[in-house]
Amino acid sequence: MSNEAPTRSDSAVYDPDLRPELFDAILSKRVVAFVVDAIIIVLLMIPAALVVFIVGVVTFGIGWLLYGALFAIVALGYIALTLGGPRSATVGMRMTDIEMRTWNGGPSFPLLAVMHALIFWFSVGLLTPFILLVGLFTRRRQLLHDLLLGTIVVNSAPLRSFAK
């Protein structure tokens, strides 16, 4: 998928009534992508923890203070590089063939990806996971953090065929 926004009008591209294939099974695909990405982040934390341990030894224990922020550093770095990258999708999202777009069809970028992750975690943490049920009631299957940031998650294949 190129980084350019779709060439036709936004309303035609992202209208769930005109293009329902963009939103077919999006919520279930997002769940699978989340699980895959969580596993990848946990696996990435193993070498990161080893690096922090070595830095802690070299700095006589000062580097070990990074352990408290290790998950946030690894997870947000992963999100910024993948979801905020040129394909606008994490590894899990690529496996399920979905990607995130801005409200006007543009690709994601690192700051938007990090804000997307942070608002997701804060909304789930503060408002319970039941807040994810919002996706069942929105036409584009957007979750609360998608609505707040003006993003949508769509199936990649129909979007690619439409942009040709």
UniProtKB/TrEMBL annotation:
The chain crosses the membrane at residues 31-57, 64-85, 109-137. Residues 27-149 form the RDD domain. Keywords: Cell membrane, Membrane, Transmembrane, Transmembrane helix. It comes from the Bacteria. It is a multi-pass membrane protein. The keyword Hydrolase does not apply. This is Uncharacterized membrane protein YckC, RDD family. It comes from Bauldia litoralis.
